[in-house]
Amino acid sequence: xxxxxxxxxxxxxxxxxxxxxxxxxxxxxxxxxxxxxxxxxxxxxxxxxxxxxxxxxxxxxxxxxxxxxxxxxxxxxxxxxxxxxxxxxxx
Length: 91
What we know:
Layout (H helix, E strand, L loop, with lengths): L2 E7 L4 H10 L4 E6 L8 H9 L5 E5 L1 H4 L3 H13 L3 E5 L2
Parallel strand pairs: 1-2, 1-3, 3-4
């Protein structure tokens, strides 16, 4: 079981999120620099192609990840379909 991180923002806070995720024990952090209402980008695609059932994906707060309830639900459902647990940490 591996713990991965996923960071997404439209500002320079991406480095802060990545640092928080690494400090929490994530082996690898994938990221997208996108506006919060956009669909996830290439970092998301790489994450989905990497994770396996039993892995964990950590994010630093849903509001930092997306402000769209539909996108949050898409992220949760996509990971659940893969057998991956989601943990929200930090702010």
